[in-house]
User: Fold this.
Amino acid sequence: MVIYETYISPHLDYCLQVWSPWLQKDIECLERIQKRLTKLVKGFKKMKYNERLKWLGLYTLEKRGLQESTKY
Assistant:
């Protein structure tokens, strides 16, 4: 979890804030990356994606992008 929050999550957040993808294919591509990377957390490989997000205290990238856009 520390590795994900330290090295991976900031990169994904940066991508969303800088160019906020409009195309569904771009959103899906970033979501696939997050899915793969959350499986790297020890003990999470066999969990479903939504369960991994819940345990890690994360949201889908699309939902996080919507939350960021409502802040301003």
Remarks:
- The mean pLDDT is 76.
- The chain has one domain: 2-70.
